[in-house]
Design brief:
Layout (H helix, E strand, L loop, with lengths): L10 E8 L2 H12 L2 E7 L2 E8 L2 E8 L2 H5 L5 E7 L3 H10 L3 E9 L3 E7 L5 E7 L14 E8 L2 H12 L2 E7 L2 E8 L2 E8 L10 E7 L3 H10 L3 E9 L3 E7 L5 E7 L4
Helix pairs in contact: 3-4
InterPro entries: Anthracycline_SecMetBiosynth, Glyas_Bleomycin-R_OHBP_Dase, Glyas_Fos-R_dOase_dom, VOC_core
Pfam families: Glyoxalase (PF00903)
Protein name: VOC family protein
Length: about 260
């Protein structure tokens, strides 16, 4: 499905910072069949991930200086905002931290990278000539985002204030699961991290739609990645798996079976 607009608070872009861009290109091209188009930028190259010439995400080589400061391969989720400067005021007032930006990205738009009060990282995007991902609701596009944290009440207050989200709690197999909403649309979720998570920090997880979770999980192993959580059913939703790419980038895949 083509997308031509995002509203305040909707997930709009996925970007991989990679320690080994050649390895990342080979893995994701093999797994999802994305075309990858390199664009020169002052810092090097920004690689657009495309489906039928439509941008759906991007990746870039992490600079040596950032790597030396502890940066690792990871996906960053961008949320659309109408006024970046106003949103940053809300973020700092609510206990978040601006770690990169704000700055212009040519004529495409303006962005900033944020850590929420518990340290989960995400980005904001105020579009100009580039709205973000131009396809959704089809295989190999981002379909869901999910916050794992230890202080869900604090997160509800923060994201409702910063992005205007509503939220709805439900019981999912004995645990409380929160769905984030923009208007009447469910755009993401949240779960509380328990002792079983160990010392893993709070983080945002993105999900890509696939036609067969089991087939893709098998392909991950063939391509040099690792299946961290094997294909697992979510009642009335679908079947998902959590994946590590060959350089440690974490993401999830899901085969949607709504109502089945």
């Amino acid at each position: 499905m083509k997308v031509d607009q995002y509203f305040q608070g909707q997930p709009c872009w996925a970007e991989l910072g990679s320690m080994n861009i050649a390895s990342s290109k080979a893995f994701y091209r093999g797994l999802f069949g994305w075309d990858i188009v390199d664009m020169p930028i002052p810092e090097g190259t920004y690689s657009m991930l495309t489906i039928a010439d439509d941008d759906i995400g991007a990746m870039y080589q992490i600079p040596d200086e950032m790597a030396q400061n502890g940066e690792t391969t990871q996906w960053t989720i961008y949320f659309a905002v109408e006024n970046l400067d106003a949103s940053l005021v809300d973020i700092t007032g609510a206990g978040g931290t601006v770690i990169i930006g704000p700055h212009e990205v040519g004529e495409a738009g303006r962005m900033a990278v944020i850590k929420d009060p518990e340290g989960a990282r995400f980005a904001l995007w105020q579009a100009n000539n580039h709205i973000g991902a131009k396809r959704a609701a089809e295989p190999h596009t981002m379909c869901w985002v999910e916050l794992a944290c230890r202080q869900p009440q604090q997160a509800k207050q923060f994201y409702s204030h910063v992005l205007g989200w509503q939220h709805r709690d439900s019981d999912m197999q004995g645990m409380t699961y929160t769905e984030w909403q923009v208007g009447s649309q469910d755009v993401g979720g949240m779960m509380a991290m328990t002792e079983e998570w160990g010392d893993m920090p709070a983080h945002w997880m993105l999900y890509f739609t696939v036609e067969s979770c089991d087939d893709k999980a098998a392909q991950v192993n063939e391509l040099g990645g690792k299946v961290c959580v094997p294909p697992t059913d979510i009642p009335n939703v679908g079947r998902f798996a959590v994946i590590n790419d060959p350089d440690g980038g974490l993401f999830s895949i899901i085969e949607l079976r709504m109502g089945v």
